[in-house]
Structure formats: C-alpha cells, structure tokens
C-alpha cells in the first residue's frame, strides 16, 4: 500500500486488501471509498470484503463504483457529496488511484484553481492534464490530437498482448510499440487449478508486469476508457489520448461475481471459493483438505467462460484427494452445469465420464447458480431444461467451488469494435477486424468461436503478428488461425486428458498418438502440464519464441 495524499482530507491509492484496513485506521483515516467495480481483476477482493473489514475496524465505507475510464460528471458529483458527508480524512481507492483522483479533480473543478488541482495530483504521482483538457472542452475529450503516438498499440498485457508484442519485435525490431495495461502483476492463470489442487504454490503463478514487458516496448500503465477508431485513438483513464497506426485488442474477461446474488459477500468464507481468483485458489485447497464428509458442489455458468474445463478440473482433483485419503465415500459430489453436456467435444467425454463414476459425482445439467446464502450454506439454482418451464432448486452445501459468470469488459462491450453480443468483431481466420482494417484482436474478447484458453492465445499471437507485419509491408494477410484450443483436464493427480481441438470440434493433437493419446488419461500429459507448460509460457510464449506455434499459411479462398 502506497498512500498518496491529494489534500489534508483525501488520500488515494490502488487496490487494497481487507488486511490493509487496520493499517489505514492506524494511519488516522476515518472513512474509505471504493471506486473500483467488482470483478475487474483476477486478484481483486470484492467491495463487500473491504466493507466488512472497515466495519470491524470502525471505519465508514462507501461503494461508488466507476467503470474504468468512464468517469462522468454525475459520478464526480456523487464522489464530492460523499467527501462532504464522510468523516475525514478519507481514503479512496480504485485499481491504481487514477479514477479516484479524476473524480476528485472533476468534483473540485469549480471550487479550486486548475493549476492547484494539477499540482496536487502531480505531487501524488498522477498526470491529470487530460482531465484539464476535458474540462476546457466542455466535458469532452478531443481525439484529433494525442498525448502519445505509436506505430502499434496493444491493449492488454496478458498472455495474448505480451506474446504479440514479442512476436512483432522479432519480425520488425524498429516498430514503435506500446502495451497498455494498468496491472502491476501478470498471472499464469492456467496454474490456479493446480494451486486449488495442492500441486502449485500461488506465488509461482505470478510475476511483476515490468519484468515481462519486452525490451523496447513502451508500457503505458493505465486503463482504457474508450476507442475512437475513426480517429485511430484510444482514450485512457484520466482522459489521456494515445494515437496508433495499428491496434491490437486483447484484454481479459470480466468476472461478473455480482450476477449471483449473495456471492460477493461470502467469497473466501463459509466454504465458498473459486480457482478463478488468485487469492481464493489456496482457500480451495484448504477446504478440500479439511473436508471429511458432507456435500461439495462445483458450478459452471453459461458459456462463454475462460477455460471451460476448469470447473470440472476442480471437481476431479478434489475427488482424487478424497479418494486417496479414504473419505470419498462420505462426500456427496455434485457438478451443477448451466449447459447440457459435460464437455463440448464428444471425443473426450467417455474418459471424463469414467472419472465422474469413479468419484461418485452427480451431474446436474441445465443448473445455473443464481444466489448463495453463505452463512446458511444454501445455494439456489435456476433449472432451464429444453422445452420445459424454468424452475428453481435449493441445495445445501458444506463447500462450494464457484465458476463466476463472465463477459467482455465494459469498455469493449460498449465500443464501436464490438458485435451485437459485445465481443470484438473479427474474421475468425485472419483475426482482423471486420470493419476497421488497421485493428486486430485475439484472446478472450474476440468473437471467433474457439475455446478461451491460454493455449489458444499461444497460437493466435503469431497469426496476428504475421498478418499485422504483412499489412505494414503493403501485403494482404499471410497467416490463418484454425481455432486451436487446448484444455488439459486434470482428472487425477498424475494423469490428464489432453483435449486439443479447433473450430467445429475438430481434433488437433500436437503429438503422435503413441506419445500422448488425448482421448484418454495419460501421465505424459500430466508431465506436460506440470513440468513443461509453465516454463514454455514464461520463457517461450511471452518472449516471442513460437515453439509449436508457427503460424499456418493462409489458404487461398476458392470462388
């Protein structure tokens, strides 16, 4: 925590944890304002967790969520009113402190000289010149000029963004490239299932973002507010503008915990956890170890989600531990899936069904989690079977692993880049935008019908890099993406069903069948997942080394 003072009555900073609240009280703060909506990041506690800690410490708490980069004048008015009402001094936070600073600046614009506002913000480490420009232009951020300009701008420094940047640098070292991402930490999210299963340590799945940004690539540590493709402009938090020659869009998904009533209040306690959050995966392993009898529920929401196999991986690894420790006979395992099949590619289902039987799990299809009462340990599911009226069913649980509903981030869904469903609209082969020729997208937010996995991004990044480089050279697209995705289904400790497939469920194995038969559980696939894939991710994929991912040449279209 790095408390940044704006005035005698207001300080700001980035995301805090519940454990930081007592330190804030000890520092003299009397109230906390949270400006960050829940679900923006995989390591983010909910506002309810902070609110409970604040109440326990005797501090006032206000939740004034503002979508990243979407600070409105009405938001600023609400923020200003809260500052007037709350006992001071007040501590406000968002992801980085920029939103809270922007809210303060806009709320003070009519009462304090602009140089004083800018000076206070600069002393705290925030550049609010874009806010001043917005105020001077009657509330609008002009994009005909920018604060910075680059040949290529990449939005999102996750698996896809860093990989594309590295692949582009390898092809065209002289390109001026910027990566835009506000996060301090980069996570190897495929490892969180293994953390929840007691195989990996959580800290081994995280590295500082600064250590991973490719040499020669400019890192803009900010959140994106909006896209103006007609002006080749990206608007950032603080109303700053970045211009681009070509744009790559690859942020992660939004985890929509709030869509399930009561879930935010009980996450990380009352036996409710999720491997979809960095800080909750270790709690998953604790729950599994402590459980000797009772009901364990594993949920899967409607698609699309990141790594569609992850919810059942949690079930298999838990069942395996209970089997090995001799308590499985005392545990009622239930897999409640909003969809109608165990796995979307039928070739892998027989092997998975064998493990469902081994662990005695009950499969409840068309069951979508809609509410949770943590203290009472009750969950309510909406049951929507085909050709029947929806009903609800209540289930008691002793522990529950929740996969949250997921959507594209708000700044994507409302942008000109999105299709009617809110996903970036691309050609599924070249990954080029259908309407804007100088924009490409990959990873979780684009609308190609493929699995949303890190393995998919590993194959997509070279395709985008090759096609973007060809475009710079005045050539048409040269590479194509075949929909490849991989889901290593950890069915027990030491064995994995390695599902690899492309568009339409076509099997796309990476290895000969005599080495790894993906349709059955193998130790070779486990070795790949546990020992080889993490270093391949950190040392090859993120560094632009396209091992087993060299882009496939674009096939000519027959007319």
TrEMBL record:
SUPFAM superfamilies: (Phosphotyrosine protein) phosphatases II, FAD/NAD(P)-binding domain. Residues 150-269 form the FAD/NAD(P)-binding domain. Pfam families: BLH_phosphatase, Pyr_redox_2. It comes from the Bacteria. This is TIGR01244 family sulfur transferase. InterPro entries: BLH_phosphatase-like (IPR005939), FAD/NAD-bd_sf (IPR036188), FAD/NAD-binding_dom (IPR023753), Prot-tyrosine_phosphatase-like (IPR029021), Sulphide_quinone_reductase (IPR015904). Keywords: Transferase. The lineage of its organism: Bacteria, Pseudomonadati, Pseudomonadota, Alphaproteobacteria, Rhodobacterales. It comes from Psychromarinibacter halotolerans. The keyword Transferase applies. Residues 3-110 form the Beta-lactamase hydrolase-like protein phosphatase-like domain. One of its GO terms (molecular function) is transferase activity.
